[in-house]
Each structure stands twice: as structure tokens, then as C-alpha cells.
Amino acid sequence: MRQLASKISQHATIIVVATAIFTFFIPQTFTWVSGYVQTSILGFIMLTMGLTLSTADFKALARRPFDLLLGTIAQYSIMPLVAFSICKLLSLPTDISIGIILVGCCPGGVSSNIMSYLCKGDIAYSVGMTTISTLLAPIVTPLLVLLLAGQSVDVDAFGMFINILIVTLIPVLIGFTLNVWLGSKEYFTKIQSVMPAFSVIALACIVGGVITSVHDRLVSEGLTILAITMAAVFCHNSLGYLLGFCVARLFKFNTAKQRTLSIEVGMQNAGLATNLATNFFLATNPLALLPCAISCAWHSISGTIMAGIFRRFDSESKE
Description:
By secondary structure, this protein is mainly alpha-helical. The chain is 82% helix and 0% strand. It has helices spanning 2-10, 12-25, 35-50, 55-62, 65-89, 94-105, 111-118, 123-149, 157-182, 186-221, 223-250, 255-266, 270-280, 289-318. α3 (35-50) runs antiparallel to α13, α5 (65-89) packs across α8 and α10 crosses α14. The longest helix has 36 residues, at 186-221. 51% of the residues are buried.
């Protein structure tokens, strides 16, 4: 079981992308992933993140207040503002703009921790940033969406607060509590070892559900809207990596922390953005789901690429 789980985790990107392509041609496969089911799946993913946290992690975070403060400010300023700027510069349709802004205003993605590990980044810093941004998300994300997207659409900021509280903060805290109580048990560590694989499967289900939701509209709109959306997602994600790295260089972080801040800023919790788009914009702005779905897949791909680039630098420096 552990070997299978390891294989699934290692090929997360392929699984997510393959699910998206498969669902596009057979959309009825994931019609069941909607509403409360989708919310429950995302909650499960956040629960698996909580299972990795311990009291030692929070003690370590308390010793690095400046690093975490800088990282959190970068996370919640760079990505929302870049998202807003891209929407304005490209004159994106309202639906697509909402999706891009939603992704930009969400906390860091859980898979960023894996990417930091792969590129020899600062793992503790990565986990810390993801944790802090997730804990702040119920308040910060709705306010940012209201500020940046509220000019053109009605935004239920309080509803988003409750939704994020339910699907992110509460599952993370439950996972953390379980880890504190049961972390020393052998059977529990075995369960922990296979949970990342289930997270990958859960993320693939969310992407499949999103593709199903927007399939008919996407087909009717044609390739143009798809190409524009993909370009916007690519620019948003890439600028996040670049600007995150620049901030770390500006404050003279060491190499490991530079890589971590770059990845943490660039990779967002697109699964949460997908859930918010489904619950709050599906009826009025259905294509808001599209940038979120593409981001789910692309951020995993680009994160893997970034980790590979950083590792390539290490290899060349040794030669």
C-alpha cells in the first residue's frame, strides 16, 4: 500500500492532467463532484495537511517571526495584485477575471511543501508559510476578493469567510489535533504515510468536477477563451515565482529560503479557489471555474518544473 501511495504521489502532475483531459472527452464521469461533495473532498485535502503539523512546527515558527511576516505579506500582496493587473491589462471577460482573482487571493498550495523539499528549499519555512496563510485565509481571502473583484460583481464576503473556515481551518486543526494525540502510534504513522496519495486522488476528483461543470460552456465558447485563460494563468503563476524570488533576494535570504519563498508565492491553493467559484459564482459567472481548474493542474506542473530548475543549478555549480 505504501509503495502504491508513493508512486501516486510521485506522479501527481500526470494524474491530475490526465484526469482533466479524460473528463473533457467524457464529462459525465465526475458529475458527482459538486456542492457538498466537492466541499468535503477539499476539506479532506486540508485534513491531510493538518496531519503533518506538530507542536514542534509551531514552536519553530515562533522563532522566525520576520521570515513568516515577510512571506505572508508577499503571499497576500503579490499574487492578488498581479492577478488584478493581468485582468486589467488583458481586458479579460468578467467570468475569467473573477477566477484569476480568486486564485490570486487564496493561500499557498499544500503541494508547495513537496516542491520545496524537491529543490532543497527550507522545508520548515515552507510548511510555516502554508500554515500561516491558510489560518489567515478565512479573513484575508474574502476581503481581498471583495476589494479586487467587488467592483464588477456582488461578492458574499461573509459567506466566503464561513466557507473557508469550514473547508480549510477546521480540517487543518482537526488533523493537527489527531497528530498531537496519536502521532506516536505506529498504526497512525502508517496512515500518515499513505495520506498524500489520497490527497492527489482527491485533487484529481476536484479538477474532474470542475471540467464537468464548465464543459458545455467551454465547448460553446471555443478555443479562444481557453487560450486566453491559459495565458493569464501562466503569466500569473510565473510572475508569482519571479517576484517571490526577487523579494527573497532583496532581503538577503539564503538560497534555501529564496527558493522556498519563490515557490510559496507562486503556487496557490487553486482547489480552494475552485470551491469558492462553485459555491459563490457558478450561477452567475460559470466560467469563473475555468481559471481555477487550469490553475489546479498547471501549478503542480510548473512547481515541478521550478524544483527541477533549482536542482539543475545545484548540479551545474558542482561541475
